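Write out the bound-state structure for nickel (II) ion.
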Amino acid sequence: MYHNIFDSHAHYDDEQFNTDRDELLSSFKEKGISGVVCCGVNIETSCFAVNLSHKYDFVYSAVGFHPLDNGEYRDGDLEKIKELAQDEKCVAIGEIGLDYHYEKESRDRQLMLLEKQIILAKELDLPVIFHDRESHEDTLNILKKYKPKGVVHCFSGSVEMAKEIVKWGMYIGLGGAVTFKNAVKPCEVAKFVPSDRLLIETDAPYMTPVPFRGKRCDSLHIPYTAEKIAELRGVTAQEILNLTDKNARNLFGIK
Ligand code: NI
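---
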């Protein structure tokens, strides 16, 4: 059985967990899970993440506005995020970033709210958890400008882009996508990422790895992603779990 399974990105507020959330999370520790970062996407889910982290010692929170939830942002919400971020188990500002795939809000509005949140993270000396979907160019520009600590989660860019990001001290988060049949870029990136810059994640309930695609994803699926990354790097899955657990603790300041 695997141990040191650290899921650096999950959304346990999701209604798909409403029927069995507590049963599921209560089973995690005996199944080898060492940590979970529960990410908010707006005020409500950020509060949820903070509350969940008080219920389970291995759960940590990240708070922020996701680019697809920017429409809800109201004056004063940044202050609320700041307040939540000062919780002792809040380890990052996130999930923040850019989403030009759905582009629910204008790029200008996405960039405006992103910059505010990066500046807040720097002020609080917290890392960012960054979402980049079809917005690689603006992501690179903004990360280059601010050079925050943090991770680009569910990384979908090229090896060249990963090289830039790693150079600025950031981490690369890889999830179920590396197991997908058509995954070329994520697999190239999985081979390249330096051992001290790799994080592993589920993005639960989304991004379910093979062989469970189409089903709900949870942190217990991490080993399937670890096995694929291990195969690509010629090491054991437990070695990948050990190093990604260590990296997550380093980035998020968890002992
Ligand atoms: Ni996410």
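---
The chain has one domain: 5-252.
Residues 9, 11, 39, 95, 203 surround nickel (II) ion (CB under 6 Å).
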